[in-house]
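Quick one before lunch.
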Amino acid sequence: MSNPTTLFDKVWDAHVVRKIEDGPDVLFIDRHFIHEVTSPVAFLGLESRGIGVLYPERTFATADHNTPTINQHLPVADPLSANQLAALEKNSAKYNISHWGLGHQKNGIVHVVGPENGITLPGMTIVCGDSHTSTHGAFGAIAFGIGTSEVEMVLASQCIMQPKPKKMRISVNGTLQKGVVAKDVVLYIISQISASGATGYFIEFAGDVFRNLTMEGRMTVCNMSIEMGARGGMVAPDEKTLAYIQGREQAPKGEAWDKAVSYWETLKTDDGASFDLEYVYDAANIEPQITYGTNPGLGTGITNHIPTASQVLDGAASYAKSLNYMGFAENDSIIGKPIDYVFLGSCTNGRIEDFRAFASIVKGRKKADNVTAWLVPGSHIVEAQIKEEGILDILTDAGFQLRQPGCSACLAMNDDKIPAGKYAVSTSNRNFEGRQGPGARTLLASPLVAAAAAVTGVVTDPRELIAE
Amino acid sequence: MAYDKFTILKSSAVPMPIENVDTDQIIPARFLKATERKGFGDNLFRDWRYNADGTPKEDFILNNPIYSGKILVGGKNFGSGSSREHAAWAIYDYGFRCVVSSFFADIFKNNSLNIGILPVQVSPEFLDKIFLAIEADPKAELEVNLPEQTITIVPTGEQESFAINGYKKHNMTNGFDDIDYLRSLKEDIAVFEAARPY
Ligand code: SF4
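Model of the iron/sulfur cluster complex:
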C-alpha cells in the first residue's frame, strides 16, 4: 500500500512540473483570476519583454476592487479608477482573456464569481493577485494569493515558483451553538493562534463543524486562512461540494462530470497521514465573536471584556497602540459600544447565505437611526437572488438599501470609506488601521452580529434577537 | 522586471520596532490606483508619515533625519496582510534594499525576493541587539552579506546567519528574475497542460 498522503500533498504533487534542487517547485496553475488593481503592471511587464499570454483560456478577469457600488451605469468618476478599469478591459481584449467588467451580468468580487460560475473546481491550483484567493480552498483546491511579479509569471508561463509550505490541520469538533456561524469559527481560531500563527503553513480544515457547514460557510472560513498567516486553507470535497458545483455554467458536464467526480472522490487525507502541526478545538467553546483591535487575531467572544496586555499574544507596545487607535481600553465591555457604520459584504460574507442571515435578524425591526449601513452583494448573481428570495423586501421594510456588487468598504478603494474615528461593524476580513478608510475603526464580526448592531446601534449579542 | 544585483550591503539602518506592520500601513489601498510601477516610495507608510493635511508627522521614524540607510529593521510579523506587491515596490522605490525582521509574512517575503529586496530573518534576540545598537548610535552600520548569508552589526561585530534557498540566492546575486527561466520550460509546460483534466 502506498504511504498515507494528505489532501494538500495529493493536489500539490499533481501540479509540479519540475522540482528545483534547493529551490522552489515549478507549479502548474489551472485557473488564474485577475482584477484591475494588481494586473496592469504585470501586462506592462509582458509588453516590455515582448511576450504574450501562454494560455489565455485559463485566466479570468473581473472588475471589483475599485468599482463604485451605486450608479454603476454611469462613467466611473474617479479618473485613476477609471484608468485601471479601462486597462483591464484593454488587456483582456488584447490577449483574449474572458472579462466580466462593470455592468456585465456576471460581474462581482473575484472570489464570489469564480465558484458561482463553476470556474473553481476541486483538485485545482488557483491563484490571483489578491490574498483572499484562499477562499477557493473550500472546494478542495489549492488556492492562494500572489504578487504582481507572479501574476506576470502565470500569464507568461501558466506556472509559478513556490516552495512547498508545511502542513497544518485544524479540526473543530462538536456542534455549533445557536447564533454561531462560520465567521465566528474562523475568528475564534485566529484569536487562538494569532494573526501570524499559521505563517509558512497550508491548512486543512477538518472535523464535524466544517463537514456540516454549507459551501458558503466553508468559503468564509478558507477566505480568512490568510488572516492567521497561512498561504491558504482547504476542505476536502464531499457531497455538498458536488451538489454546489453540478449544473454551474463552466462545471464539467455529462461524461466529463462523471470522470471528474471519480477523481474528486480520491481527494481526501488518508488515515494516518501526518501534518507538521495540528490543532483541535471544541465547537461548544465558540460564541459569537467580534474583534476589538487592529489585527484579526485581536478578537474574542462578544460577551467578554477587552483583554489586558498580558492576556494577548501581541507585544505590550503594539497592543497599546492598537487599543489607542480603536479608542478602547483594557477591561472595557464590548457589548454596548456605540456603532456608526455597518458593512455587510466582501468575499468573506457577501454571499446569499450572509444576506439571509442578516435578514433573519432585521426582519420586523428597524435600522437604528445612528447607523449608516452599506449592504453590498458579492456579485450580480447574489443580488438577483436577494431579490428573488424576497430578502430585499425584508431589508427595505427595515429601512435598509441594497448597493451594487464590488469590494466596497472591505478595502475602501472606491468612495465607500468609513470616516476617520467612526466605528464600523464589518463582515469583511481585515481590521487594520485605515483599512476601511483613513482613521476608520473596524470591528470584524459575522452577518448576525452586524445585523444586531445595525438595528440596535450598539454592539449587541445576536442571540438576544434570534427568535426561538 | 530586472533589479539591481545584491551581494554585500553595508549601510546604516532605519529602526521600526513595531510588530505586525501590515501592508495596508506600508501602502494604503487608495494609492494602488496606478497602472505603472512609479512613484510608490512617496506614499510609503503614508498615514504614519503624514498628517491628513500633508504635513509630515514629526514623531514618525522616516521623518527623523537622524536615521537613514538602505536597510529597514522591523518588528515581528512584518508585511502581513494583502498580497499587494505595491508594498514591496514602495519600500524599494523609497530606497531600501533589505528588510530585517524576526518574522515575515509569506507573501510579502516572496514579493520582496521577486523584486530585489532581500528579507533577512534573524532571531528575536539578534533583532533586539540591532535595535540596541541603533539606539546607541543612529549611524551604526549593518553588513548584509548574501553570498555568505550573514548579517553583522558592524560596531559590535556580532553576527548571525540567515536562510535563503539556493535558487533565490542565485537569482538575487545575479539580478535575474523567474520569468526567463519559466519561459525556457515552455515545452515541458505544454505537455503538462495537455494532460490536465480541466
Ligand atoms: S472583498 Fe476585500 S478581500 Fe475580497 S477580493 Fe475584494 S478587497 Fe480583496
